[in-house]
Design a protein that fits this description.
The protein is α+β, with helices and mostly antiparallel strands and about 400 residues long. Helix content is about 35%, strand content about 30%. It has a five-stranded mixed beta sheet. About 0% of the residues have low confidence.
Length: about 400
């Protein structure tokens, strides 16, 4: 399972995250090609390889036309002005329109809009405004659109399955922004912390390290927080921070494969018996009963017994807790006089179950990974039901599920 870990030892901002992801080795030409699908004018993006405090980093700057000194110089992104129109401004609906009218992939668009909604919701709660009363002034809006959509593009190109983050480390004191001097953490960051499970640590650094865009990205991307999980590391990227804080200021991003694709060995019981004198219709009933009562698997194997008599081997796989009850069912429902029991070790892939929305309807799937290769198994009963409801071939439903997952 491909995993990504954000090591936020110096906080997180949108441009730091974008720099760290690009530093993993993403094809810059492909990235720019995708970013141009935004159809957003009035800016240029500068991506540079630099060395900061003896560490090679990727530094990203968004330069907005007509604003010569604005190039992410201050790391922060406090870009809302709440109807004070001394700068051209955009509200959330304006930004959603820009994203939706782009030629980007649908999942990239959805993620970008989700992040902007997180920021706008937090700002609205802080200032007691409606969400669409929150305005992003022109410079901040362009910055954030490029940072957020750039991150979304990188995540899509990396094809990761799980994303983790360390606790977020922030400074203290006050920061100058659109509204004047604000305490660190700034109110929007504090609001998003309140509404999330992200662990947060303050340090004796007299400035802001965690920006609203940065924490919104972490909140929308990451499923777990803490130390880096056991993983085989493939690539490491560093994104440059802009502030001088007396030590290395940057974001580290680690790409690798989780070490626990395979579960530890567990034990199962294999119950077997030979049957040569039962009505086949009854055998079908026995299988149904065993599965309904919790058997992991039930199957029949054709064999020949003494005197060349056709027969079947009934095999039931079960856990220790159920083996006694299922044995009683076999003895009660079949003609057998005894059961063979074997304890076997087995190794399985970790798997997750999720629901996938297709054009035919919602379908449950099981997803597992082996050496980075994804295996998708749609729920047969869901596919069968939709095929009958829509009067379409079953294979079409299966194909649609695979397309939706990809």
């Amino acid at each position: 399972m491909r995993a990504l870990y954000f090591d936020c030892f110096s906080g997180v901002s949108g441009d730091m995250m974008l720099g760290a992801l690009l530093d993993l080795g993403i094809d810059e030409k492909k990235f720019i090609e995708e970013l141009n699908k935004l159809n957003l004018s009035g800016y240029k993006i500068v991506i540079e390889k630099k060395v900061k405090d003896s560490i090679a980093v990727t530094d990203v700057n968004v330069i907005v036309e007509g604003i010569e000194d604005h190039n992410h110089h201050h790391d922060h992104d406090h870009h809302h002005d709440h109807n004070h129109h001394h700068h051209p401004s955009r509200n959330l609906k304006d930004i959603e329109k820009i994203i939706n009218e782009s030629n980007l992939k649908s999942n990239v668009k959805e993620f970008g809009i989700k992040v902007f909604k997180e920021i706008a919701k937090a700002e609205a709660r802080v200032h007691n405004k409606e969400i669409n009363e929150i305005h992003f002034h022109e410079v901040g809006a362009v910055d954030s659109i490029v940072d957020i959509m750039g991150v979304a593009i990188c995540i899509d190109l990396l094809l990761v399955d799980k994303i983790y983050s360390s606790p977020l480390r922030d400074g203290n004191g006050f920061i100058k922004c659109q509204h004047g001097m604000l305490p660190v953490p700034v109110p929007a960051v504090m609001e998003m912390l309140k509404m999330s499970k992200i662990p947060y640590i303050t340090e004796d650094v007299n400035t802001e390290l965690v920006t609203p865009t940065g924490i919104a990205l972490i909140k929308c991307l990451c499923s777990e927080y803490g130390v880096m999980p056991p993983m085989k590391i493939k690539k490491v990227g560093y994104g440059a921070g802009k502030r001088e804080i007396g030590r290395f200021n940057g974001l580290r991003c680690v790409l690798g494969t989780l070490a626990d694709e395979l579960k530890k060995d567990d034990e199962i019981y294999v119950l077997e018996t030979n049957i040569d004198d039962m009505n086949p219709e009854l055998l079908g009933y026995v299988m149904e009963v065993l599965l309904e009562r919790g058997a992991l698997e039930v199957f029949y194997t054709p064999i020949y017994m003494k005197k060349n008599r056709p027969a079947v081997v009934l095999t039931v796989l079960t856990n220790e807790e159920m083996q006694d009850e299922l044995s009683k069912i076999i003895l009660r429902e079949t003609s057998t006089l005894g059961i063979r029991k074997t304890i076997c070790k087995r190794q399985t892939l970790n798997r997750e179950e999720k629901s996938v929305m297709t054009k035919y309807g919602e379908i449950k799937v099981k997803i597992s990974l082996a050496e980075g290769l994804k295996k998708v198994s749609p729920e047969y009963e869901d596919c069968k039901r939709l095929a009958k409801e829509r009067n379409i071939p079953l294979w079409k439903v299966y194909d649609e599920v695979k397309n939706a997952i990809q």
